[in-house]
Amino acid sequence: MSGWLDGQVAFITGAGDGIGRAVAERYLKEGVRGIVALDRDASGLSTLTKTYGCRIATVTGDVRSYACNEEAVKLALSLFGRLDTVVGNAGVFDFRRPLRSYTGESMAATMDELFAINLRGYLYAAMAGREALIASRGSIIFTASVASFNAGGGGILYTMGKHAVVGMVKQLALELAPDIRVNGVGPGGTLTGLSGTDALGQTERSINANPAAFHEKMAAGVPLGFAQQPEDHTGLYVLLASAANARAVTGEIFMSDGGTGSRSV
Ligand code: NAD
Description:
Bound molecules: nicotinamide-adenine-dinucleotide
CATH class: Alpha Beta
Structural class: alpha/beta
Number of helices: 8
Number of strands: 7
Number of domains: 1
Radius of gyration: 17 Å
Helix content: 40-55%
Mean pLDDT: 96
CATH topology: Rossmann fold
CATH architecture: 3-Layer(aba) Sandwich
CATH superfamily: NAD(P)-binding Rossmann-like Domain
Order of helices and strands: EHEHEHEHEHEHHHE
Strand order of the largest sheet: 3-2-1-4-5-6-7
Largest sheet: 7 strands, parallel
């Protein structure tokens, strides 16, 4: 059976869990030759390799390190011979912390950490993959959010950061055309283990601490009436990675939020 991504090779950050992992699994079903997964969670990566074997290569490391991103791209080229898609996805949350809750010091530390992961990590992935993507006329996909266009999906820092992803997509789409398409996918609240920053002592905290309450809140507040799972977004990542199906699409963010972003009240 042929898939939409037959023979392609992808580099995905944050593929150890959640949305990134679901994208990796879906890409494998769509026929990719190989995936390089970069994540700081070694155990998440090892379950991925155990399940999918030699079509997965992993780099255990931090997206804030350019060397780790470079290593991932080198692995893609040496093991699988090419690179078609870079998915910038690893991220952390601020648990909707408002401005009034910060001190000058905690703002500096949290902002530095959250922006370095959620934004610099994306740029590093794009920078490391650029030459290989020019050669393949490939594409970059960034995980944006319902918080990329609205207030309240995060606190001040997460919302600012996700809005910046929109600027990143648009600017890079222009800069990297005509060789590389650059787009985003914007999930709404999704049942994952999305965690927080070290600066606020929230690396062990997760948005799915209480899945039943999360389901109830989503079902009540999302127009489509259900809590989204990571798998619900993966079709858009497939579409955007497929030159055959999205050849003319660049500079766009495709929302996948159950209609949350389209409501005015
Ligand atoms: P997740 O925690 O399940 O997955 C994120 C992965 O990124 C984890 O495996 C984690 O180990 C990894 N990671 C985090 N910081 C890292 C770092 N510095 N270096 C390397 N790896 C790191 O969470 P998720 O919800 O799947 O998040 C993925 C993306 O989706 C994030 O960008 C997040 O902002 C975005 N998003 C999530 C939601 C949601 O409700 N879950 C909604 C919209 C957007």
